[in-house]
Amino acid sequence: MVLHQTTDDRLAAEFFRRDYRDRGMLKWGGFYLSDHTSALAKMHAAERVESARPQEAWPVLSRRLAAAWRAGKPVHLQLNSVDDNGVLATVDGVIAGVDGDQIVVRLVTGQYRQFQLTEIRCLTGDHLDQT
Questions:
Q1: Which fold has domain 58-124?
Q2: What is the pTM of this model?
């Protein structure tokens, strides 16, 4: 018995002409880049609604803000303002300065934002005591 051998190019061309069914964009559905998946994870984390924490007393908030400023570590602020959906505003960053009844926060984007102490509902951070 003698088998006929064909060139690889001709064999491939015959396969694609006769047998192969292109699934179009379906074949790309499973190929997410790690950047895309991490961006999606951040987007979904931002969509989670944070429950309202109790308003911290002025002396406690003031002491914790000073400690956060000295430590220079990231903090999470929950503000007293709400958006159009009734969700409390939050800010993540590092306390860059304290001046009387105002603080300056360096946001994770590198921008600076100023807040009145009366705008802050509570302050959390891994390095701060929770009292």
A1: SH3 type barrels. (2.30.30)
A2: 0.59
